[in-house]
Amino acid sequence: MKELSFANRQKLKFFIPFLKPHYKIIDLGCGSMWLTNYLRNLGYDCVGFDESSPADIVGNVKTYNFKEDSFDAVFALEIIEHIDCTKEIKRILKPEGILMVSTPVPYMDSLLQIGEHLSIFQKRTSPHSNLIYLEEIPLKLIKKKNLFGIVQCGVFQKN
């Protein structure tokens, strides 16, 4: 597996302690499937979902027909700024399930754009049309962390 970036290692260090061995996990917006494959290598039952290959399931998160209460954990790393899918995430999470999110701090998005232009950050795949603060997500916020003052990470629980 390709070596993980410093930022991704920091995210994993924050999120992994919240996972339990029996969890059924979905990685929404899985992209290259780095996280999906990482979790599988740790022994987790994880499926990758994205609008394009190489995802295990290809589709639109808002229109795909997921079964209600079907996942113990949902990873949504760098996706909710592209599409407002928090209601669908809440619907597919099992009771007491957890959501793990990373998304840009809204007021720092212009700095990210400069970093993308300078090839410091990965270029976005679509516009950031849904920039939100973690407190706006309709689930119980358990823990949050700010990475580099630019990215907000949060762990949420469905009640």
Q: How would you describe this protein?
A:
This is Methyltransferase type 11 domain-containing protein. Residues 27-100 form the Methyltransferase type domain. Pfam families: Methyltransf_11. One of its GO terms (molecular function) is S-adenosylmethionine-dependent methyltransferase activity. The chain has a single domain (6-157), classed as Vaccinia Virus protein VP39 (Rossmann fold), CATH 3.40.50. The protein is 21% helix and 30% strand. The protein contains four helices and seven strands, in the order αβαβββαβαββ. The chain has helices spanning 6-15, 34-41, 86-92, 109-117; strands at 24-28, 45-50, 57-58, 71-77, 93-104, 140-147, 151-157. The longest helix is centred in the N-terminal third of the chain and has 10 residues, at 6-15. The model has no long low-confidence stretch (mean pLDDT 92).
Concise account of the structure shown:
The protein contains four helices and seven strands.
List the helices and strands and how they pair.
Blueprint: H1 6-15, E1 24-28, H2 34-41, E2 45-50, E3 57-58, E4 71-77, H3 86-92, E5 93-104, H4 109-117, E6 140-147, E7 151-157
Parallel strand pairs: 1-2, 1-4, 2-3, 4-5
Antiparallel strand pairs: 5-7, 6-7
Strand order of the largest sheet: 3-2-1-4-5-7-6
CATH architecture: 3-Layer(aba) Sandwich
Q: Summarize model confidence as the mean pLDDT.
A: 92
Which regions are unreliable across 5 or more consecutive residues at pLDDT < 50? none
Radius of gyration: 15 Å
**First-residue to last-residue Cα separation:** 36 Å
Order of helices and strands: HEHEEEHEHEE
Strand content range: 25-35%
- Count of extended strands: 7
- CATH classification class: Alpha Beta
Structural class computed from helices and strand pairing: alpha/beta
Organism: Candidatus Schekmanbacteria bacterium RIFCSPLOWO2_12_FULL_38_15
GO molecular function: S-adenosylmethionine-dependent methyltransferase activity
Pfam family, one: Methyltransf_11
Protein name: Methyltransferase type 11 domain-containing protein
